[in-house]
């Protein structure tokens, strides 16, 4: 395997939401939210739509869906976002996202 100059375990830390990495991402998110001018619900739904568009990992969905629920966004609204963006991102991307969301929620012990 080629040496890419990244210290061992760095990718695992990113994938596993290492505390330092998570704190940095959280701070970036807070800064972006403040600059967006959006209300918390709209901001989080926009992030979820972006995650679908880029075929994000289950951990990213879990983080953002949990934050959305804490902001008062019902899962039915998240489902509505998936329906709304399907014509733009494609049905295959939405089906992939739905599976990853289900996987993330199941890994977290939830069945929503």
UniProtKB/TrEMBL annotation:
Q: Name one Pfam family in it.
A: CMD
Domain Carboxymuconolactone decarboxylase-like span(s) in chain numbering = 22-98
Q: GO MF annotations for this entry?
A: peroxiredoxin activity
> What domain of life does the UniProt record list for this protein's source?
Bacteria
Report what the protein is called.
Carboxymuconolactone decarboxylase family protein
In its UniProt entry, the species of origin is given as: Streptomyces luteolifulvus
Give the organism's phylogenetic lineage.
Bacteria, Bacillati, Actinomycetota, Actinomycetes, Kitasatosporales
